[in-house]
Amino acid sequence: MFRKQTHKQILENLSTSVILLDESLQIEYMNPAAEMLLEATAKRLSTCNVEEWLTQDPDEINVLKSTVTSGHAYTRREAKLIAMNGNEITVDYSVNPMLVRDVTFLLIEIQARDRLLRIEREEELLTRHATTRNLVRGMAHEIKNPLGGIRGAAQLLERELDDVGLHEYTQIIIEEADRLRNLVDRLLGPHKLPKLEPVNIHAVLERVCTLVDVECEGQIQFVKDYDPSIPEFIGDTEQLIQANLNIIRNAMQALQESHTPDACITLKTRAKRQVTLGSERHRLVCCLDIIDNGPGIPAEMLNNVFYPMISGRAEGSGLGLSIAQSIVNQHHGLIECSSEPGRTRFSLYIPLELRNEDVR
Q1: Where is the Histidine kinase domain (predicted)?
Q2: C-alpha angle 296-298-304 in degrees, rounded to nearest 5
Q3: Beta carbons of 188 and 323 less than 8 angstroms apart
């Protein structure tokens, strides 16, 4: 009995999806990892045909049926599975026949390629962003030091000039030095210690929507698809407002400049379990999607949108998205972006189990 329970516990704690089919290709068992992958419970899928969740390819179904009689195992690479919500998932899977008391079962082991590719992409994004931030910080500090000297020298020079008409030129030097200093401060991003408190993500979004709605004079429709079950987490409310404001304001400006008809920004929140961000796995994560129906981000810019000074707008500073990524990174989270004409989505992932000492 102990061994049986241990085997079941091992199966239920595997990150690999495991499914057991009977001779008629109906589900006998699936572990929690498989339920998460297919976004449906074993109880629900047990009444479904295999075509509804594995493959609609009749040749593949015939191979499964022949495996029951032939007993030959096989493997498929980069196959496409269909989740119950209609999403297509890229996976590797192996089918192994099992004979139990003269009855043949098919054991299917599934490795999600999408998840592995996503982890690699996230690790690369985090590494690139951290490298860029360190480079920018080093350059910014090197720039600030001589700027202070230039400004101070201009002030001293102004005091020595008897001709008041020449003060116009020293004021230009002082104002331009101040402008450059402000730009450098923005490049450095948030420099205050985070003010940690319980954060309600929906309160943050409501505040941002109010601000943006005033700016756009009600010309953009906001669609709110909130998950009320998302709990509060420890974070800096003001910084998270700033991060979301930067993204939503960018979307607003893109919609206005492109004169998109029926301009719309959708805000969607969901709680997701067992999510890996970079190299760290989190038990529970808040996923916030900010989606607009604007013209989209040019393909050549898509991989660089979080770099400082990268902007698709002539008057844009290119700092908003970089600062937003830094703020979410401080909360051990990550922002991803996907875009095509008519649909641009920024996805913010923020762990919900953060403690005070976790936010940096």
Answers
A1: 138-354
A2: 110
A3: no
Q: Same domain for 210 and 298?
A: yes
**Residue range 34-53: average pLDDT?**
81
Farthest CA pair distance, the chain: 107
User: Average pLDDT in the 104-113 region?
Assistant: 87
Domain containing residue 29: CATH number: 3.30.450.20
Task: Examine the domain organization and report whether 203 and 331 are in the same domain.
Answer: yes
**Amino acid at the residue 177:** A
| Collapsed DSSP state (helix, strand, coil) of residue 258 | coil
At residue 83 the predicted structure's pLDDT band, cuts being 50, 70 and 90, is: confident
DSSP letter at 231 equals P
Q: What pTM does this model have?
A: 0.61
The interaxial angle of helices 320-330 and 113-160, nearest 10 deg, is: 120
* Residues in the chain, total: 360
pLDDT of the residue at 314: 47
For 181-228, write each residue's pLDDT tens digit: 777 776 666 656 678 899 999 999 999 999 999 888 888 999 999 999
| Bridge pairing between strands 221-225 and 264-277 | parallel
Cα 193 to Cα 207: distance, rounded to the nearest angstrom: 22
Residue 149: inside a domain: no
Structural domain harbouring 227: 193-360
Q: Among 98, 113, 128, which residue terminates a domain?
A: 113
Looking at residues 252-278, what average pLDDT do you find?
89
The reply to whether 108 and 214 lie within a common domain is: no
Distance of CA 66 to the CA centre of its chain: 42
Cα 37 from Cα 40, distance rounded (Å): 8
Q: Rounded CA gap, 225 and 112, in Å?
A: 28
Tens-place pLDDT, residues 164-179: 788 888 888 888 888 8
At 85 the three-state DSSP class reads coil
Please identify, among 79, 113, 147, the residue that sits at the C-terminal boundary of a domain: 113
Residue 285 in contact with residue 272, Cβ under 8 Å?
yes
In-domain check, residue 187: no
